[in-house]
Amino acid sequence: MRYIFFLFFALLTFSSCEKQAENAVVYDQAITAVKLSAPSKSESDNTINIPQKIIKNASLRFETNDLEKTFNQIQTAIKENKGNVQNDYQEKNYHNISRNITVRVPSQNFDSFLEAISKGVSYFDEKSISSENVTEEFIDINSRLNTKRKLEARYLEILQKANKISEILEIEKQISTIREEIEAKEGRLKYLENRVSESTVTINFYKTIAEKEGVKISYGSKIWTAIKSGFFSLSEFLISIISLWPFIILFVVLVYFIRKRFKRKKA
Predict the structure, then answer these.
(1) Which CATH code, of 3.30.420.40, 3.30.70.260, 3.10.20.30, 3.20.20.70, is assigned to 54-135+198-210?
(2) Each residue of 135-172: pLDDT tens digit?
(3) Cβ-count burial 179-218 (b if 16+ within 10 Å, e if not)
């Protein structure tokens, strides 16, 4: 009887070990299957065929005789090239009046937009055009993203076959980590796609103020500044005196007693 019980116990132990080994093999097969299906870098460059991904930017600065006319010209170019204004800033000082506009324009209209806003400009104080090719990064992220999606799908299949709570929790933890990586890569792709699809153009144009006008503005401003400065200085002086009244009283009392004592000695 004891021999039969021992044999039965041995069969149960062997069955349990075999089942755990089978689950471990399934996990290993999931990783191995995804690694084998993932393309190498050279293969991904050949298999993933996408157009060139280039980020274009430009920065222009020039002088104009008519700010309003120049702004209208830029506004017309924005409408014709389907752009949109992201930032519009104006500034006036003693020397010039300037306006700074940041525009986002579809990349296919980048050259035509620059040509339109450059009409009538005799020379540029600054003209900077840059382009960044992100095609390789785009392909690499796409390849890694496909691998992560396959790995996620494989883990979901394993999750359906898992029986133990510890195994389920471990698989769900892995799936959560993979999902975070997928979302991060998808966000990066969207950012790159947005930068590629629309170019950024910064336009700064200004008008120089005449010397006489600058002197008038400067002189009047200086007088008003001097008046305000004198008023604030007087106010601060009075406030400082008021804040020192305990010391003033103490000083007066001390002088009074010193003088009184001096008179007694003299008498």
Answers:
(1) 3.30.70.260
(2) 999 999 999 999 999 999 999 999 888 888 988 899 99
(3) eeebeebeeeeeebeebbebbbbbbbbbbebeeeeeeeee
